[in-house]
Every structure is written in C-alpha cells, then in structure tokens.
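so the lab meeting is tmrw and i was supposed to have these ready like two days ago... anyway. pasting both below. for each one the top line is the aa sequence and the line under it is the structure tokens. i havent really looked at them closely yet so no promises
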Amino acid sequence: MRQKTLATEIEIDGRLLPINTYGGTRACYVEVLTTIKREFDAMQSWHEKVLMVRVDIHAHADIVGDKNTIMTDYLDRMREWVGGKQYNAKRMGYVWIREVSTQGGLHYHVWLMINGKDAKSGYNFIEKSRQIAERHSHRGYRNVPYPPKSKDGIKKEYFYLVRRDNDSEYNKAFYHVSYFAKERTKDKHNLSVKGKNFSASRITAKTKPIHMMTDAERQLPLFA
C-alpha cells in the first residue's frame, strides 16, 4: 500500500467518488479505495440491491500474533451462516482492514456485502458476529462491540442497502467505507513478512451473456 491521497474525491474507473480524508488532513491508500470499489461493483453486477454491513472485531494481540488466521475463521463462519437457511445467499463479498491503536488495541474493521433481497438490515450480522466472538474467544476474539454512537446518542450508520444505478446511495456508502483506507492506525510493526493489513473477497463480476445471432437475424439488412 504505497500510493496515498489527501484529496476529498478520487476518480476510479472513470467514476468520481467522495472519500473521507478528514478535509484533506489524513491520507488514504489508493490501493484500498480501488479494491473497495472493485468488490462493490462486482457484487452489484450480480444483485440489484446490495446490503453492506460494517463489523468491528477486537482481538487479543498475544493470541492473534503476526498473522490473520482469526479473519479466516470469522469469514468461514459468516459465509456458512449467510449461505444457510436464513438467507441462502450464494455469495458474500467483504473487505477487511487490520489496525492497532492505543485506545482500541488490535482490531479489524470488516465490511460484509450480500444480496439485498436476502437481507435488508445489519442487525442480525452484528448479533451473529458477537456470538462467534463469545463462543470462540480461544481463537483470539476479544469482542465485537455494538455500532458506535455519535455525540447526540444516535447510532451511526453501520449498514447500507444500495440499489444498483443509484449514485446517491452508492456515494454515501463508499464515503463511509473509504474510512478503511486511512493511513493512520494501520498495523505496521506486528505482522509477519507476508502479513497483510487488508484483504478482500475477490468476487468475480458477472459478465453479460453473449448473444449468438440466429440464421434469421443474419439475413436482416444492415441498415433498415
């Protein structure tokens, strides 16, 4: 993650997107922003509506160590859950970031993405994540807090239901997720040589089916 930006907007794939650099005072990694858009677009190629949910996972640094096996464990359990009877989701997109701060210690921010027709709220995802952390603390989970509240006591938005081709909803969600790309608080000292500070699902975008011309269509004149 080398290239950084302090701009309040960034153009990716010809699309101008708002990003949270705190008014140009805190840099964001371009690579992370590009990855977020790639995963979001890939999910939208499959689904008319995409539910995006933010989950924060606090971990025990002495158990997790310099690897991210806790994220492999978490995502495997969530993938199995969303593919079960409750949602029967065929795919789950995600982006996660590893950070360390004085106040929060070692923690991960995760954005999960599934078909918005399967689920329309993030509540169950938070509850399931808390359940995983409580039942498998021996794997390094410390806790999964409930979504933070702003100064007025109202819960900050932690999930978005984004409709395809709705620029306003897309931009609002992307601005929030761009927080993941911030340079500040990334874990730069506790990872192994091949350790990662972020990763993503690498969903393959749906390609439009190729229309094969029929014999009748081949006989039509080029210009009517």
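ok protien two:
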Amino acid sequence: MIFKFSKEKLFIKIIYMFDLFSGEFLIISNKPLAIFQILEYRINMNLLPQDVVVLIKLKLLNNDAWTYNSIAYELMLSSSMVHSAIKRCTNAGLFVLQKRRPNNRALEEYLIHGVKYSFSPTLGTITRGIPTAFASPLLKEELSHNDSQPYVWMHPEGSQLGISVEPMYKSLPAATLKDPLLYKALSALDGIRIGEAREKKIAIEKLLSFIKSPS
C-alpha cells in the first residue's frame, strides 16, 4: 500500500522469511515496519513503533545527560532495544548522534504527517484502562468526540471503561504511569493517529507545545 503526499511517501511492510523446509514464506513480524520518506529532509525511515516513543522521550528530556540504561528503565524496554531504536532513528535522520538529541524539525514533521500512517491505530473491544487520545485529561476538555465510548490503553490499574487502543508497545501504558509528561505527549499523539481534521489539529497543537523546537 502506498500513500502519496506533497512532501512524503509511505510504505507499510510486513516482514517475511523464506522457509527452506516448507518452501513457503512465513510472517516473522506482525508489527508494521514503516518506511517513510520526507523529501524536504531527504530522510528514509525504517522504524519500529517503540522508536517513536524513544524519540519523544529524548525530546522531552531536552538534554544529553541520559544513558541507554536510564532510557530503557524509564520506558520499560531493554537496553538493546533502545540501542537499536537510536541506531534506526540516526540512520533515518531523526536523531543526531553527535549531539545526542533528536533532529527537531524532522521529528516534528514525521509526528504530524507520518506516524498516523506508519503506525495506524488498532482498535479493539470495550475494556478498562488508561484514557488516551480524546479521553485523556489533556484533550477531553477541548474535544467532544462523537463515539459513545472513550479510548483507552488496556491496563489493570486503569479507571476508565472504553474502546481499547493498542499502544505503541506492550509495556508503554505502565511506563506512562510513572511519567506524566510522556503520558500527555503520547495521548496527544494518539489524538493525531485517531482523530479527524479538527481533532487532529488540536492534538497537533498540544503535542507541539511539549516538543516544539526552539525558534
């Protein structure tokens, strides 16, 4: 499937492996691998969902006083996963390794125009969890969504009943419980991923208020 924009091209892939014994192609990843191109920055991206969260976390820190282990602990990922995420983001042009910081303008461009298509939201059944998107405290005061149920990340400590939204990775909801700013940023990102034009516009404004690069 190919989506075309004035500045972007997007391809969504499923990873396959050829089995020599059966002579068939087998799916070895049920997560989409996003290949996204921003022509303005000449960026080609091979990303996994957790890479987006790592970038947002590093942007929110807004300094270079971090370690792979500290980021892994705070995001409830392994150190090797954080290493791999940084490597992919560096190769994509979204992270500047020498400065140990995200590429601000490219990251903003990707979050606004790419993530919704790279990692489109997977909605599930009614469950109890942590409010996200238009149900989150950040957005619910400004948006009145038409759905009868709010959106939530399924989690045993969640207090809201609503439509489940698959998080960017399994342990993400638990990680946001100990990081209120990360929770706000990612609930706004879900608003971009799920929302229509008006809702998306407000969610973008909220997200950029956290991660906007200096003028």
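from a quick look at the 2nd one: The chain has two domains: 2-118, 123-211. The CA atoms of residues 2 and 11 lie 5 Å apart. will dig more after coffe
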